[in-house]
Amino acid sequence: MISIKDVAARAKVSAGTVSKVLKGYTNISEETKKNVMQAVNELGYVPNSAASTLSSKGKKKIAIYIYINDKFQQIDEINMLYLMGALDRCRELGIETVTVYNETLERLQHDTCLSYFNSLSADSVIVFGLNKDDRMMLDMLESPRFNFAVVDAPIVKDNVSCVYIDQRKAQYEVASQIIETGDKVLYFSGKKNGYVSQMRLEGIRQLQKDRNFELTVIEGEFSEAIAYHQTLKLANQYDCIVCASDMMAIGAKKACKELGIFVKISGFDGIRVMGYVGSSIPTVRQNFYNIGYRCVDEIIRLRDGEKGQKVIMPFEIDRISYRSVIK
Amino acid sequence: MISIKDVAARAKVSAGTVSKVLKGYTNISEETKKNVMQAVNELGYVPNSAASTLSSKGKKKIAIYIYINDKFQQIDEINMLYLMGALDRCRELGIETVTVYNETLERLQHDTCLSYFNSLSADSVIVFGLNKDDRMMLDMLESPRFNFAVVDAPIVKDNVSCVYIDQRKAQYEVASQIIETGDKVLYFSGKKNGYVSQMRLEGIRQLQKDRNFELTVIEGEFSEAIAYHQTLKLANQYDCIVCASDMMAIGAKKACKELGIFVKISGFDGIRVMGYVGSSIPTVRQNFYNIGYRCVDEIIRLRDGEKGQKVIMPFEIDRISYRSVIK
DNA sequence: CTGTTAGCGCGTTCAG
DNA sequence: CTGAACGCGCTAACAG
Question: In a mutagenesis test of the A interface, which of B48, B53, B136 is the best target, namely the one with the most A β-carbons within 10 Å?
């Protein structure tokens, strides 16, 4: 384990000087700066981040908080894209990250959660797809000591920005692709009390007012299985099935095929698997990568002392073709 | 930020004693133990892991090394399952983890890589799907200071265990489901020089000897697009298309459908998307969760001073139905 | 059984 | 412009 001392010895300066060089202080002669950097390279020195963050109370990492579980299919694609976006942006900016998984937090008490992120030397947290049941994280948002960028939850505070597409508008637009006046429409909503679920529901309700059709709402919990089974039971009574997620749309479509009937269906999210199911279903394409990317920029804003804001990301209404997914 | 001192003050003992209680030392009176724990709870104290690992040179985290990119579709599902397995096992065992992404390492020099993991206070690394191009990680494996569990690469050393299914046998068996003597067989292999690609290729070659058929091998690079386009061109000359990955099988199947011909196809991996493509394609089902889970146990073995070993995980030959993926 | 002491590796004053 | 000295929060060795 080569420490800053080794570098100092090799460069014939003191440890303090090495530190200054590495931190980019200005008042260092070019001469010694060069020597130090050379020693660093020759020795392959990497600062010990534990010691570093312990010493300088400067916590600078961004914690990336991810829900990882097997309850909902295809969540992994969305998470990976969020993650890629955020990681790429952090790399561009030279910011260190820590990945934190929800199950890790579930073990902790309310208050200890703060300390936990603290001990990770994070001062900011990006929350991908905040869950309304996640008391732990919701409590954390109250702590002014951290900055947050939250995806898919309409929460704005001095230290909290939120990032998402206009769910209401998106649901309105995608549904309007398939619904005609007078249609009987079945709507599979997401999780009861979920943030996005509510907004999407408002979207379809708005469309109902504007276009006048019969609307039945079923809580689909984003579950493909529920959509599948409910569709098997009910599809023959409806002209359209509007789904608050692609996976539910896939379940509904599958059921219709099995029933041998045609019902207009729309989805929501724009995930790749839509390109494989052999049906052309209009959906809302969210650019998850960009959302993740943008979250980092929000954190930067907050760190700079700006107040939290709501960031609305663009989306597209489209069908996902096989061609588009195989690249 | 409440530190060990605060706890000590509240419990009216010294910081050292608190530390001992928390580390589960035996020679502590029940009385003070209780007091300390109470103070810990009341204050919501969480040890600062940076300080902890800095002090005790005891590095105990397991670093989980993941390739994250968008080059190959559906890698995300596999990675997530690996990850879930490893994380679950680590939680069961009370081991802390750090997640490290390949792109982070790509910035580093050879030697600094070691220091990097060091500074993360990791003494072990789990590598999911080691890439033969990844010089950085391959070099690291030479370092006896770390323990490694490597998935999908046949590397065994004192400090390196590897975990995977019997690729050779799996490819043999799944292909034998569709190939009959005298068939003309097209084989889409994985990445040239890839570890698993080679083993799978051996499997099909072995089958060729045993069953006697005409075999053409094309480097498919695990790419759905390549399989798709090559199949469009060549399918009518073959009876079977054996693919070294599910995504290639899907590409091949799609092409056959477009050509309006039937060719027997097999896949490899057992990922969920196979349940959505509407074709019943035999494949090798790997239990990625269990593989991730098992990797942690291998690390434990190595930490206990045992030598690295090859761990062969079970697999199944099966078709993935829609029913099985919607649960 | 418990308190005291001495660092872990680094960043940051403060002198010089 | 540079070096010495202190302390971040914690653990370990040593006293008592």
Answer: B48
Mean pLDDT of B207-235: 95
Handedness of CA B143, B149, B153, B157 (dihedral sign): positive
Query: For strand D, is any atom closer than 7 Å to the CB of A58?
Result: no
Q: What is the pLDDT of residues A113-152, one digit of tens each?
A: 877 887 788 889 999 988 888 888 998 898 887 899 999 9
Pairing of strands A147-151, B240-243: unpaired
Give CA–CA dist B327/B325, Å, rounded. 6
Rounded Cα distance between A311 and A277, Å, is: 33
Q: Which pLDDT belongs to residue B158?
A: 94
CB contact under 8 A, B111 and A79: no
- Please check whether residue A136 lies inside any domain of the structure: no
Say if B325 is an interface residue toward chain A (CB within 8 Å): yes
CA-based angle A64:A66:A72, to the nearest 5? 160
Beta bridge partners of A127: A65, A150
Instruction: Round to whole Å and give the CA distance between B65 and B62.
Output: 9
* Domain containing residue B30: CATH number: 1.10.260.40
Q: What is the CATH number of the domain that holds B178?
A: 3.40.50.2300
Residue A311 lies in a domain: no
What residues make up the domain containing B13?
1-45
pLDDT of residue B243: 98
Composition of chain B by helix, strand, coil, percent to 5? 50, 20, 30
> Contact, A188 vs A248, CB < 8 A?
yes
Q: Do the chains contact at A79 and B76, CB–CB below 8 Å?
A: yes
Domain assignment present for A162: no
Contacting residues for A111 by C-beta, under 8 A, at least 6 apart: B44
d(CA A321, CA A2): 53
Burial tier of B29 (Cβ tally within 10 Å: 0-12, 13-18, 19+): exposed
Nearest to B48 by CA among A164, A165, A116, A158: A116
Of the candidates B46, B19, B97, B42, which has an alpha carbon nearest to the alpha carbon of residue A115?
B46
Q: How many domains does chain B have?
A: 2
Give the Cα separation of B128 and B99 in Å (integer): 11
Q: Is residue A200 part of a domain?
A: yes
Contacting B residues, span 49-78, partner chain A, CB-CB under 8 Å? 49-51, 53-54, 68-70, 73-74, 76-77
Q: How far is the CA of A314 from the C1' of C10 (A)?
A: 44
Q: Nearest-CA residue of chain B relative to A72?
A: B326
State pTM to two decimals.
Answer: 0.87
Please give the Cα distance from B267 to B256 (Å, whole number).
15
